[in-house]
């Protein structure tokens, strides 16, 4: 096993305005990945402004001081590049992969929207992208069976006022109520060079990238007073099991059992990651072997267990199963709980299987320059050092049977959130 | 604040080189130095096009049944053996091929491939297991079919190609066709189609990989090759539009699937057709996405592309729009297809489409998985080793007249089928009044 999960060079610099620049050369293919993490996510949103961070991600593609509406996409795609962005509770990231001769174009575009978005914001753009986001919500959450499970789980897992209490897609009422100056203020507050990490990976020379970063980003002012998100690291302990039943247009009963564990990046969470893999990843997993194959309670294609890798508060572990024909939600729950409560006897071959699958998953993630750039931005943003990206795989490999047993013991029924979907009774 | 006002031009380009294609008996490989993972895929001429009528989805059931134990070990032992290597079996069936593959750290590849061969060539296929897998697959399809999309797709296929044709029915079948599959169907399909040698595709760091040994592993005991499936099927262009409603009561969106029949993959217009469709709906900057999403705000996204396999093809435009704007979104969509057919593309749009498609070859073809997929394309469509280099040149050389000509020849706005999966009670009258085409209900 590789002693590091990141066997490529990493060089870093920090501009005077606080922008951290990370470069990792790999001249294998003539492409360069550019990735920026802004340390702002839905956890920063106050009451009444939910969904702002995500809507802002949309607005960032609609033009900036020197880039007309529609040009951002056209320039990148016209250069042969791919681009996108995502928002989650922790952060917002923007990324593109381009043939390497177009690196400078990508940096210019990123700098222009970091420093020059506000002058380009118009009411028309805001109104249009608000509609696009509402369509995104309909398509991803409202029009799909079980699509709103994540939206329902978060407020059950985290108390009101906790930064993870509300979902990133936000409330449509909040989005409707917001005016243009409020959005402009959001950008001014958070989109600053000292609140961002810029990673460039691929067919580049580190010294050139640092010089280009200085050229395009160096003139942007840092902001001294960026307000931190509310502290969510120590939420009030759960006071007992929580349940929610949803009756709706779903084809079969489905259960989600969830609970808070530990923040991503801690050794305790590494053990949760290994445990989740033992539990729900692959045909050799406990859920597959015992619930789908053994007791025949669950549909084999729909058992899962995974941690959601959030770093600023105890991250959730989510375990899910969907009932086979003729199996009731109650019977499925008994079986699922039995598997969870029986995790005290995990054997060494199960741990080895999980570690092997995690190693493959890791190497797949870093097999592209874009995947590597995102990993570097994450570790620089959340742990202060991109080189710590190399630690995750060895940390997973180092998880001991005792640590897995402790993680299993912490899956207490008292801390459990149970979300059940039940099909509507049809009157024939 | 100081931003650089002027957009920088490109630096000196470094050419992309597709890795050298290594061919041995039945093995097609590419060497990717330094990659930690390697991938191997066995390609069999056993795709959905081979499935008998009324048994659509059979290839997928066979795929699942392969992992239910082998003549050497039961399913739990098999899963543990494979997953302890960090590998999982992945299978897929498209119209032209059946694929079974493994991805693993390169030093584990021979063991993982031996397990792949064991499942593919010598599955146990115990009748009770096969029946259970079939039932599970039918249930899984019912789950999928509860989502918006599959029913609309089935209605479009049925209308474009006819239910009496295999490609007029869903690629992966429907809950009923899968439920109708018998144990004998599964055993028979495996016997007929999984004895052929097939082709093994390998991508990864081959420094310490013995390709001949890998080939010997998967070809051991195989029989002879199978007869080809036949040439391209004829297309009959239509001259009137029709609207097919798939009722989804209470839906907050209308799921749109528009299309018409189009040429097969090997058609000489493949490259200009690809570029015309890119301008129409293939990229974020496309005409459809610009108008329907960015200007109108009707949707989260809309795409248009030609889907092409060895024997047939089609134009497909897909989107989901809010219910209240169903008709305006359809009118705009048909309008953009019509405009593109009638007026062609502009040089400015084409420049973006060309360089995007060409650049994507460099950007996308980085990983063992992507390279293996590209090798599989060579195998399935009998393309030469320099195909990707030639494709890049052809994309960059396509001029406006050629691409506009392909748009005029292969886009048929007057013959489109417009499938709308949504709340019929809310949208039917407006659809009828729109004059977009005759309105019919999808057969249940």
From TrEMBL, chain A:
Record domain Peptidase M16 N-terminal: where: 21-139
SUPFAM superfamilies: LuxS/MPP-like metallohydrolase
Highest rank taxon of the organism: Bacteria
Keyword annotations: Hydrolase, Metalloprotease, Protease, Zinc
Region (Disordered): 222-245
Keyword Hydrolase among UniProt keywords: yes
Swiss-Prot/TrEMBL GO biological process terms: proteolysis
A Pfam family recorded for this sequence: Peptidase_M16
Domain Peptidase M16 C-terminal intervals: 183-357
Hydrolase in keyword set: yes
GO molecular function ontology, one term from the record: metallopeptidase activity
Chain intervals with Pro residues compositional bias: 224-240
Xref: PANTHER family: NARDILYSIN, NON-CATALYTIC MEMBER OF PEPTIDASE SUBFAMILY M16B-RELATED
Family (UniProt): Belongs to the peptidase M16 family.
Record-given protein name: Zinc protease
Automatic annotation (TrEMBL), chain B:
Location of the Peptidase M16 C-terminal domain: 181-354
InterPro entries: Metalloenz_LuxS/M16, MPP/UQCRC_Complex, Pept_M16_N, Peptidase_M16_C
Peptidase M16 N-terminal domain residues: 27-162
Molecular functions (GO terms): metal ion binding
Name of this chain's protein: Peptidase M16
Organism: Phytohabitans suffuscus
């Amino acid at each position: 096993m590789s002693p590091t999960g990141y066997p490529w060079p990493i060089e870093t610099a920090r501009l005077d305005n606080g922008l951290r620049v990370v470069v990792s050369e790999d001249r294998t293919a003539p492409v360069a990945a550019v990735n920026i993490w802004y340390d702002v996510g839905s956890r920063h949103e106050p009451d009444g402004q939910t969904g702002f961070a995500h809507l802002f991600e949309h607005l960032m593609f609609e033009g900036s001081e020197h880039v007309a509406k529609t040009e951002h996409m056209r320039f990148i795609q016209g250069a042969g590049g791919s681009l996108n962005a995502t928002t989650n509770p922790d952060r917002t990231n923007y990324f593109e992969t381009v043939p390497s001769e177009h690196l400078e174009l990508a940096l210019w575009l990123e700098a222009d929207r970091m420093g020059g978005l506000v002058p380009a914001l118009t009411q028309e753009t805001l109104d249009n992208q608000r509609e696009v986001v509402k369509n995104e919500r309909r398509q991803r959450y409202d029009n799909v069976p079980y699509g709103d499970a994540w939206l329902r789980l978060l407020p059950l897992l985290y108390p009101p006022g906790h930064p993870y209490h509300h979902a990133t897609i936000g409330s449509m009422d909040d989005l409707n109520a917001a005016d243009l100056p409020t959005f402009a203020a959001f950008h001014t507050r958070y989109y600053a060079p000292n609140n961002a990490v810029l990673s460039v990976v691929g067919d580049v020379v580190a010294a050139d990238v640092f010089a280009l970063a200085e050229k395009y980003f160096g003139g942007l002012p840092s902001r001294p007073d960026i307000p931190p998100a509310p502290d969510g690291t120590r939420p009030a302990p759960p006071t007992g099991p929580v349940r929610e039943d949803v009756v709706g247009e779903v084809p079969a009963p489905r259960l989600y059992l969830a609970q808070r564990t530990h923040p991503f990046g801690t050794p305790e969470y590494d053990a949760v990651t290994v445990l989740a893999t033992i539990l729900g990843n692959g045909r050799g997993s406990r859920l597959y072997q015992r619930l789908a194959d053994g007791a025949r309670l669950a549909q084999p294609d729909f058992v899962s267990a995974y941690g959601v890798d959030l770093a600023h508060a105890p991250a959730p572990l989510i375990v899910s199963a969907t009932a086979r024909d003729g199996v009731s939600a109650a019977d499925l729950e008994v079986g699922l709980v039995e598997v969870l409560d029986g995790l005290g006897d995990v054997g060494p071959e199960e741990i080895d299987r999980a570690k092997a699958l995690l190693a493959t998953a890791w190497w797949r993630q870093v097999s592209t320059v874009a995947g590597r750039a995102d990993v570097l931005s994450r570790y620089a943003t959340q742990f202060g050092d991109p080189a710590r990206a190399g630690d995750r795989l060895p940390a997973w490999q180092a998880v001991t049977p005792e640590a897995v047993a402790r993680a299993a013991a912490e899956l207490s029924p008292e801390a459990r959130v149970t979300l059940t979907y039940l099909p509507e009774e049809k009157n024939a | 604040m100081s931003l650089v006002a002027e957009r920088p031009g490109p630096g000196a380009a470094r050419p992309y080189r597709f890795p050298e294609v290594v061919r041995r008996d039945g093995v097609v490989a590419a060497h990717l130095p330094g990659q930690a993972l390697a991938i191997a895929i066995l390609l069999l001429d056993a795709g959905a096009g081979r499935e008998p009528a009324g048994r659509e989805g059979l290839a997928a059931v066979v795929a699942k049944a392969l992992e239910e134990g082998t003549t050497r070990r039961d399913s739990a032992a098999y899963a543990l053996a494979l997953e302890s290597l960090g590998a999982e079996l992945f299978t897929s069936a498209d119209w032209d091929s059946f694929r079974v593959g493994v991805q693993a750290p390169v030093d584990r590849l021979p063991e993982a491939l031996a397990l792949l061969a064991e499942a593919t060539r010598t599955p146990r296929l115990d009748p009770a297991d096969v029946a259970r897998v079939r039932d599970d697959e039918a249930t899984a399809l019912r789950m999928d079919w509860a989502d918006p999309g599959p029913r609309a797709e089935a209605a479009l296929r049925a209308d474009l190609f006819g239910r009496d044709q295999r490609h007029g029915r869903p690629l992966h079948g429907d809950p009923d066709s899968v439920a109708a599959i018998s144990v004998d169907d599964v055993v028979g399909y495996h016997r007929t189609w999984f004895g052929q040698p097939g082709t093994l595709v390998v991508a990864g760091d081959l420094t310490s990989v013995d390709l001949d040994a890998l080939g010997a592993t998967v070809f051991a005991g195989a029989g002879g090759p199978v007869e080809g499936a036949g040439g391209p099927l004829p297309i009959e262009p239509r001259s009137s539009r029709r609207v097919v409603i798939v009722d989804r009561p209470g839906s907050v969106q209308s799921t749109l699937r528009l299309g018409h029949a189009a040429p097969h993959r090997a058609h000489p217009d493949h490259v200009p057709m690809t570029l015309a469709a890119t301008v129409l709906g293939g990229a974020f900057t496309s005409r459809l996405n610009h108008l329907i999403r960015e200007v109108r705000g009707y949707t989260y996204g809309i795409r248009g592309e030609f889907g092409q396999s060895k024997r047939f093809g089609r134009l497909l435009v897909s989107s989901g729009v809010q219910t209240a704007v169903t008709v305006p979104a359809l009118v705009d969509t048909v309008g953009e297809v019509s405009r593109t057919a009638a007026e062609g593309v502009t040089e400015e749009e084409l420049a973006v489409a060309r360089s995007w498609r060409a650049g994507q070859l460099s950007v996308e073809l980085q990983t063992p998985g992507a390279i293996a997929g590209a090798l599989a394309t060579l195998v399935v469509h009998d393309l030469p080793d320099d195909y990707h280099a030639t494709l890049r040149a052809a994309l960059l050389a396509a001029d406006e007249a050629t691409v506009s000509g392909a748009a005029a020849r292969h886009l048929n706005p007057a013959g489109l089928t417009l499938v709308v999966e949504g709340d019929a009670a809310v949208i039917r009258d407006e659809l009828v009044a729109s004059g977009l085409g005759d309105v019919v209900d999808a057969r249940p």
